[in-house]
Amino acid sequence: MLSGTLVLVGAIVWFIASLVLAGLELAVGEFTLLMLAGGALVGGGVALTGAPLWASVLAFAITSIGLLMFLRPFLKRRLLKPQVLDTSFNALVGSTAQVIDSVEEHGGQIRLDGSVWSARSLDPSHTFAEGERVTVISIDGTTAVVWKED
């Protein structure tokens, strides 16, 4: 009876340590404490089986080292990579523009992103009147190819 209680207490201590480490990870954000929390979970699982303390500590150490060496670098590359800011004209594709001079097969003008652009219709048979809203489908040199906004 006493042995079963000690096993349960040991496992609970490991699980509490895991929760504390995971909670501290929220403040730090480096994934190190999260990897140690994973090791503590494994240590708690081993303790729950009734294994001796040294086996739980060994499981904690091996798991923590493995997570730190293999999972942490992957997570850092995947989640902490800087966002790339696209400043090319292609970033305007999909934007909404307002027609300021009738857009036809060979020309017209739109107000796009605060500046005036030359524009032409995607379909040569369609024209867009002044004041209409259009969507930029592509950028062809210095001309925006537009289509009616849905």
From TrEMBL:
Residues 90-148 form the NfeD-like C-terminal domain. SUPFAM superfamilies: NfeD domain-like (SSF141322). It is a multi-pass membrane protein. One of its GO terms (cellular component) is plasma membrane. GO terms for biological process: proteolysis. It is found in: Membrane. The keyword Transmembrane applies. Keywords: Hydrolase, Membrane, Protease, Transmembrane, Transmembrane helix. The chain crosses the membrane at residues 6-24, 54-71. It comes from the Bacteria. GO terms for molecular function: peptidase activity. Pfam families: NfeD (PF01957). Coiled coil: none annotated. This is Membrane protein implicated in regulation of membrane protease activity. It comes from Corynebacterium testudinoris. The lineage of its organism: Bacteria, Bacillati, Actinomycetota, Actinomycetes, Mycobacteriales.
